[in-house]
Amino acid sequence: MAATMPPPPSRSPPPPPRAIFSPRCTSLQTPSTQPQHRYLPDGGPQRQGHVSPRRARARPPRERDLAAPYAREIGACVRARRWGAACEAFASMRAVGAAPDRFLLPQVLRACAGLGSPRLAAAAHALAAKGGAALAEDPVVGNAIVAMYAALGDVASARAAFASLPDRDVVAWTALIGAHADAGEPDEAFDLFEEMQESGVRPDLISWNTLVSGFARIGDIGAALHLFDEMRLRGVEPGVNSWNCVISGCVQNALYEEAMGIFQEMCESKRPDSVTVASILPACAGLQALRIGKQLHSYVLRHGIKLNVYIGASLISMYSECGEFDYARVVFSTIEEEKNATVWNELIQLYIREGRMDKAWEAFNLMQEDGLEPDIVTYNSFIAEYARAGQKEQAYELFSGIVDMGLKPNVVSMNALICGLYQHGLYTDALEAFRYMQGSSDAKAKAWRFLDNSSPIQPTGTTITSVLSLLTDLKLDRLGKEVHCYALKNGLTSNIFVSSKLVDLYGKIGDVTSAANVFQKIGNKNVVTWNSLLAAYKHNKKAEVALKLFSEMLESNLHPNLVTVQIALLSCGMTMALGYGRELHSYITKSWPGGFPATLACALMDMYGKCGNIEDARLVFECTVPKDITVWNTMMSCYLLHRMPMGVIDLFDCLEQSNIQPDPITFILLLSACKQEGLLEEARGYFNNMEDVYGIKPTLKHYTCMVDIMGSAGLLAESLTLIQEMPVEPDACLWSTVLKACKLHSNLEVGEKAAKALFKVEPNNTSNYMVFSNIYADTGLWDSTEAVRDAMTEQGLHVEKQCSWLYHGTAVHPFEAGDLSHPAIDVILSTWKDLTTRMEQSGYSPRDIEPYCNVEADPFSCHHTEKFAVCYGLISMNDNEPIRISKNFRMCMECHSSIKFISRDKNRQILVSDGCTYHRFKDGTCSCGDAW
What we know:
This is DYW domain-containing protein. The chain is mostly helical and 932 residues long.
């Protein structure tokens, strides 16, 4: 480990305070009865252990004189938050026989709480109880005891101390409210807040802030802001600290956009202080809002705000996360206070983000030379980076080194390791680390022998969230449900991030019912949880439900964030809800008046493209400044969807002139355009130029595009040769492409080879069997067709139901195959019957229906769902209004031919997106040119 972890510091650490760590000291009383010399402020020694209690009581002025210098020292230590030093000074004070008064004891109680020692807290409480009525019945001391237990998280003891108070003032009530708020129990805190007022005690600003902070910390920003309004109605004006509570709560829950919005609202009436700046800077880092971060830095300098360690650490973090490492180093060198461990840790993290591990370890050594010992946070930064880099052995060795240094890895250490291993793709190792946390003997035996698992590190919400992310990516639904059970048993489902990730997990594995059930049980729903549910329905092709839920979210007074709007726009595209999409465009323009992010521009272009409005998609493209490669790619994909391949090629020529480097996705789109236009040689030229000119190594997707182009041209043998020469293994997508080309050219020989390879790598995909069976049907081999269908049935595979969606007004009308429950179904069927009669009378010649069996089919009986949607559009929409339909299957030839006839016969524009191609039917023709 010499290359990665420096040896322990040569100098010995300072001895711990005797009052805290001495084995002979069990309370805050005199540590020893043996005579010891203590030098008093006047320089004279005094013998301990021989002071007469009677004599001490006879001379109270002398006792007060003894206590005075210690009281000053304790007060200074408490103000500096040096809790251990304060407790040590108090132990020394008790050693000389001095007792605390009603003014000093509350400071000692605060030091015990700050030190986080329940044993010392109990001893201090006992000391107050033994001090007679002057201490035990003093309201200031009583309030301090309640506050001490609240700070330690001991809600039960805080309630017991509160119950013993003879008179409960606003300070005592606020302390108990804070205990429940800090414990993540805002509802209980609110009940106490109401009970306080019913008892005749009026809440002050601190009481309100405590309650606001409790709701904000759990991410219930709506409730926190509602309390703001209540404060004003009851005559209490929110102060800067009130705003800081909400901003800090948003940041703690990664609600950076909400934090920024609240900060901007605050600036309209209040001047930010140092706490505000330190709280909002992490939001700037999370949003990569470097410009706002620099403005805040300038604000600090202009208004003479001291660049303390809190603001300094936040600025260093913001600049380093935004990639401005030089600025971060300048901030480090200009911090006005003596640097603490937090600041040094941010510098170390800066070098880690910069990828300079040698400099990070150098800062580690300089930190020790500056008189500070690295803490567990320091080591956790290194553990996280080694895990993210896939250097798991170095990460494990660091764990061992921490133990050797006398530190104990905590849950943050384990979370850093699990998250890092997961991000690097080391899923097995990440799961093993999680099993160790659960006390698994197998995991302990393999890689965790250096840690004592007699008291396992308990997983937190962060741990569970990381593990659920891993299981979601791997689609391990059984293990996901086990982790869900574990979270339920350990009370972790109340964590908003755990619940949101559970909704995401169930959505990704296709279980939207369970996703909705988890969502309904979340008590403090926020934007993140709503986003998870919206994404679940969109992912499972229930975009119309997602749009309905989006409306419900707005009615719950939650403000959508960037992710919400993206999901809604994608759902509009899936259902061709152009009107809804335009409303969202208006909302975006109002919410981002200075220009919206490129991610939203791409979502808008995608929505307009899928809704058939290529002109508006191009307008968004032109208005987006600056354009990154994602914006260019999105516009190309819109042209591709509308079968405008030359638009893609022309846009690529403009891209080359703009000095923006194309990426691998650009060439996938470009090759797909060549396939649509039948440009085989041009495609080969682009494919070769990828690596030769642009330095982009072809991936499996690029080879799949070339195989698709060659297959469309009938070069099936040549495509097999290319597959054999590829430097990567073919996947299911590639073999599926070959199989579809064989269907197009009725090539049974190559089709059988492709199907054999395809069924090995993807045995449970129904569509593969359907294509293969249709190849047999095309060649008249009906027995083989039936054999493939029987194989599907034996494996329990079923064809997904076709579904089409018609967007009309503010509603989305779904039409599912076999479902005749639509209220207008009788009129729909009657309309279709009239249309088929007109087709026969006009001499319309239907195209062949896809062969499914060796029977003669009625060419007018193809009741596919897009026909139902078209008929409902004809009877329910204005004559000049385009009929917009989306569906989850490729249109069959008969439906395509029929809708062309209807567009001419009814003089209607009909737009259909079938997931493969965008079809614009008008005057009896289709924009796809009958090739899709």
